[in-house]
Amino acid sequence: MLAEWFLVIGICLMGAMTPGASLAVVLRQSLYQGRAAGVITSISHAVGIGVYATASLLGLGLLIVKSPILFVAIKWLGAAYLVWMAINAWRFAGQSKVNLESTSQQLGNPIKQGLAISLLNPKVILFFLALFSQVAGDQLDLQTKALYASTAVVIDGAWYTLVALIATRPAIRNKLVNGSLWLDRALASLLILVAARIAFG
Q1: pLDDT of 96 above 70
Q2: Any idea where the domains of the chain sit in the sequence?
Q3: Ordered DSSP codes for 1-28
Q4: Could you say which DSSP state residue 67 is in?
Q5: Which one of 77, 100, 162, 183 is most buried, by most CB atoms within 10 A?
Q6: Are 119 and 8 in contact (CB under 8 A)?
Q7: Can you spell out the DSSP letters for 89-150?
Q8: Rounded distance, CA 75 to CA 123, Å?
Q9: Pseudo-torsion of CA 41, 60, 200, 148, nearest 10°?
């Protein structure tokens, strides 16, 4: 069991640290709404990860994937949400340098942002189905399944919280905000690429 748990830890670390839409959202929330908002977004994102990790371990994730209507609905809602975020990021690119308060209002509630970016991404549940198919099965007891799910939550939350803490250090935050025009456009482009991958991947 210990070897399987280390495998879960390693793969969850790689999954969390891979740049994507989640990183873009946590960064923007951290830079423009502050450290607390960045941490809240990170924790909310981890909660969403926990939902899909638990669903996969209990066999519910497979039901979602095998339900064409539900899976396609999540896929297109997620892609549309990312496109909407990308449009706003591009539209207001650079304005944060002048008006942080206005940009903060445009970003919305950090709890909703964190949950949405994880729950509206069907790639997350596919990730966990692939992961747990290698280490989980009917032989796993409830305690082990809880350990694997909580491991995914803790790793995800810890990684993005670290990102939020680093990004909001005064020297780093000032540099990023000063270059917010290109940062926002880069994040918007990343969101579009992820949306396309979700919709057509």
Answers
A1: no
A2: 2-10+20-200
A3: -HHHHHHHHHHHHHHHHS-SHHHHHHHH
A4: -
A5: 183
A6: no
A7: HHHTTTGGGT-HHHHHHHH--HHHHHHHHHHT-HHHHHHHHHHHHHH--TT--HHHHHHHHH
A8: 8
A9: 50
d(CA 5, CA 29): 32
* pLDDT value, residue 137: 58
Specify whether the backbone of 19 is left (phi greater than 0), alpha (psi in -120 to 50) or beta: beta
Is residue 43's pLDDT more than 50? yes
Q: How confident is the model at residue 152 (pLDDT cuts 50, 70, 90)?
A: very high
pLDDT at 109 over 70: yes
- Nearest-5° angle of CA 108, CA 23, CA 101? 30
d(CA 112, CA 54): 20
Q: What is the pLDDT of residue 98?
A: 47
In this structure, the dihedral spanned by the alpha carbons of residues 79, 85, 89 and 91, taken in order and rounded to 10 degrees, is 90
